[in-house]
Amino acid sequence: MLSYLIKRFFQAVFAILAISVITFFLMNVIPGDPVSLMMEKRADPETIERIRHEMGTDLPLTTQYINMMKKAFSGDLGKSFFSGIPVSQLIGQKFQTTLKLALLAYLFALTVGILSGVFAALNRGKIGDSTVMIMAMFGISAPVFWIALILQIVFGLVFKCLPISGFSTPAHMILPMVTLGLANASSIARITRTSMLEVMKQDYIRTARAKGVYEKRVVFKHMLKNALLPIITISGTQLGGLLTGAIMTETVFGISGLGRLTVESIFRRDFPVIQGTVLFIAVVYVVVNLLVDLSYALVDPRISLSEVD
Predict the structure, then answer these.
(1) How far apart are CA 257 and CA 104, in angstroms?
(2) Fold of 87-307
(3) Separation of alpha carbons 269 and 273, rounded Å
(4) DSSP string covering 76-92, please?
(5) What is the number of alpha carbons within 13 Å of residue 87 lying toward its C-beta?
(6) Reported pTM
(7) Which letter does DSSP use for residue 162 in this model?
(8) Domain limits of the chain?
(9) 109-139 per-position pLDDT tens digit
(10) What distances in angstroms separate CA 283 from CA 56, 96, 241, one per listed residue?
(11) Cα–Cα distance, 185 to 117 (Å, whole number)
């Protein structure tokens, strides 16, 4: 197990470094100067050059990158060019909202996805199965911003039963939660159905039923438990994506989270914030994926960590 963890650690470090390099140099080849945008043409060229020197943006790109990574490894992600607030503080503030939204959407996706997948598997070939799969295909195919707009129109403007923006009360959380969780619930439903159908063919399922075990016990203890590995894989990956910021959902619903912070920073070319959020997102993805791999051995004792890769 120790060798596996060491191997994954070095893979994680390499992935994070590669992402930081690509992001840094891509942002610096895009036309536009963050200092000029910040000053809004109110300063003369000499003042702009002085500010560039103070910020270090006049240094060679390789030097800027090395300086940035040295500070990042010590926990210093720099300060925003525009607000002067430390990037780590900005991420901490915005991530609280994104975490709340992500966990709500994740619980919605798991609950709806697993129950729908189990229902479809148990009714294979029937109208219930077809209905669930059609809805799942719709949920996967429909763009997030389109779903958000439709929900806002239907529940906010037509029926006027739910607020269409903000994230301050339980009522405000419903539409963003459904919007963000719908695609994930659809994917989980399809995977659950497929995995359940595979397990249903096993001899121990027929044996359990022949012994007179209650059907609910057969379904949830024997079938679903042994169908969890693919579900864990996809749901774990989805959790990483949800935690790192639902950009479209937060933008459409006016939620001040990590995704919206990233978009605003890109438009303003606020390099420290962009780099900080990207590094944070990379770390979250890596940690979540590692935890998903480790969970395989916990869910199914037949699998050892040496087999997970």
Answers:
(1) 14
(2) MetI-like fold (1.10.3720)
(3) 9
(4) ---B-TTT--BHHHHHH
(5) 23
(6) 0.80
(7) S
(8) 32-76, 87-307
(9) 999 999 999 999 999 999 999 999 999 999 9
(10) 26, 16, 12
(11) 9
86 - beta bridge partners? Answer: 79
Lookup: tokens for 76: 């210093």
**What's the CA gap between 167 and 174, in Å, rounded?**
9
Residues contacting 118, CB < 8 A, separation 6+: 192, 193, 196, 219, 223, 224
What are the DSSP calls for 168-219, one per residue? SSHHHHHHHHHHHHHHHHHHHHHHHHHHHHHHHTSHHHHHHHHTT--HHHII
What's the CA gap between 292 and 288, in Å, rounded?
A: 6
Residues 254-279: tens digit of each pLDDT: 898 888 888 888 887 788 888 888 88
| CA atoms of 17 and 77, how far apart (whole Å) | 15
CA angle 165, 248, 32 (to 5 degrees): 115
Are 282 and 111 in contact by the 8 Å Cβ rule? The answer is no
| Cα separation, 43 vs 19, whole angstroms | 34
Identity of the amino acid at 136: A
CA pair distance 192, 141, nearest whole angstrom: 18
Distance CA 120, CA 125 (A): 9
* DSSP per position, 241-298: HHHT--HHHHHHTT--SHHHHHHHHHHHT-HHHHHHHHHHHHHHHHHHHHHHHHHHHH
Alpha-carbon dihedral angle through residues 225, 231, 237, 239, given to the nearest 10 degrees: -70
